[in-house]
């Protein structure tokens, strides 16, 4: 039970923060197409399901990775005759060193935020992360380590900021994936994991069943309030059509593209 409590004190803040930040990622992903999640039928219940499945998939990846790291640490400790373990315990017992490492880690978790909202090179990113960690977190973490409740609070803060940092890195991945869809018409595994619809259809007029848009394939982003939200890969446009006047003809999920295919053929 003590082991589970220790794991939970670190894992729960990470998962909660990651879950919260993923909502921003979904919004940023659909913003690439000029719409918001609600306009494509992604309401709160759908978002809950998508983000829960994403967190579960991340956990499935993280658990064996953590196991490998723990195994590697155990092996290193055995090879060094216990010296590595004694070094780690010595660092934990020195408040300034432990506080400094936690502060630098928290500063580094802002990298995803900097990359999303700015355009900084690696050197500037390192300087900002180190400066932020030292100025904002070092002294508070040192003060918190005086008592057990303070050390527990430090774990929660570090875990929460770690989840936020991972979340913003995922947002960068979602935005990059949405840009790829916009230019190539193909989604990646990360977009599929959060439930992005890589579904294409030929639209037909509901009155006479004649093909619309010259029978070209259109990407169905979603539907809401009696309206289809579509992406025209050939013209690089996001369109809306009433469902009552539109039939979906041939439908294809995750279509194969020829090598080198790009959207915007009619624009060029």
UniProtKB/TrEMBL annotation:
<feature type="transmembrane region" description="Helical">
    <location>
        <begin position="96"/>
        <end position="117"/>
    </location>
</feature>
<feature type="transmembrane region" description="Helical">
    <location>
        <begin position="7"/>
        <end position="26"/>
    </location>
</feature>
<protein>
    <submittedName>
        <fullName>Uncharacterized protein</fullName>
    </submittedName>
</protein>
<keyword id="KW-0472">Membrane</keyword>
<feature type="transmembrane region" description="Helical">
    <location>
        <begin position="123"/>
        <end position="144"/>
    </location>
</feature>
<keyword id="KW-1133">Transmembrane helix</keyword>
<feature type="transmembrane region" description="Helical">
    <location>
        <begin position="156"/>
        <end position="179"/>
    </location>
</feature>
<feature type="transmembrane region" description="Helical">
    <location>
        <begin position="55"/>
        <end position="76"/>
    </location>
</feature>
<keyword id="KW-0812">Transmembrane</keyword>
């Amino acid at each position: 039970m003590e082991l589970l409590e220790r794991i939970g004190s670190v894992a729960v803040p990470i998962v909660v923060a990651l879950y919260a930040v993923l909502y921003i990622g979904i919004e940023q992903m659909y913003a690439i197409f000029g719409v918001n999640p609600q306009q494509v039928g992604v309401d709160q219940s759908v978002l809950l399901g998508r983000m829960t499945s994403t967190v579960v998939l991340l956990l499935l990846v993280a658990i064996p990775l953590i196991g490998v790291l723990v195994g590697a640490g155990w092996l290193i400790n055995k090879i060094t005759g216990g010296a590595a373990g004694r070094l780690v315990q010595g660092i934990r017992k020195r408040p300034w060193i432990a506080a400094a490492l936690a502060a630098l880690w928290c500063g580094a978790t802002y990298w995803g935020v900097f990359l999303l909202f700015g355009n900084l090179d690696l050197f500037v990113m390192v300087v900002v992360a180190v400066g932020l960690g030292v100025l904002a977190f070092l002294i508070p973490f040192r003060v918190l380590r005086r008592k057990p409740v303070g050390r527990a609070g430090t774990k929660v803060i570090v875990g929460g900021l770690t989840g936020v940092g991972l979340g913003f890195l995922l947002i960068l991945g979602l935005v990059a994936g949405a840009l790829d869809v916009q230019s190539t018409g193909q989604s990646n595994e990360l977009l599929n994991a959060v439930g992005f619809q890589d579904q294409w259809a030929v639209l037909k007029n509901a009155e006479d069943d004649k093909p619309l848009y010259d029978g070209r394939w259109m990407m169905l982003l979603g539907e809401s309030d009696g309206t289809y939200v579509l992406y025209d890969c050939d013209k690089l446009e996001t369109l809306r059509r009433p469902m009552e006047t539109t039939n979906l003809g041939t439908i294809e999920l995750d279509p194969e593209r020829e090598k080198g295919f790009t959207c915007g053929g009619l624009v060029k």
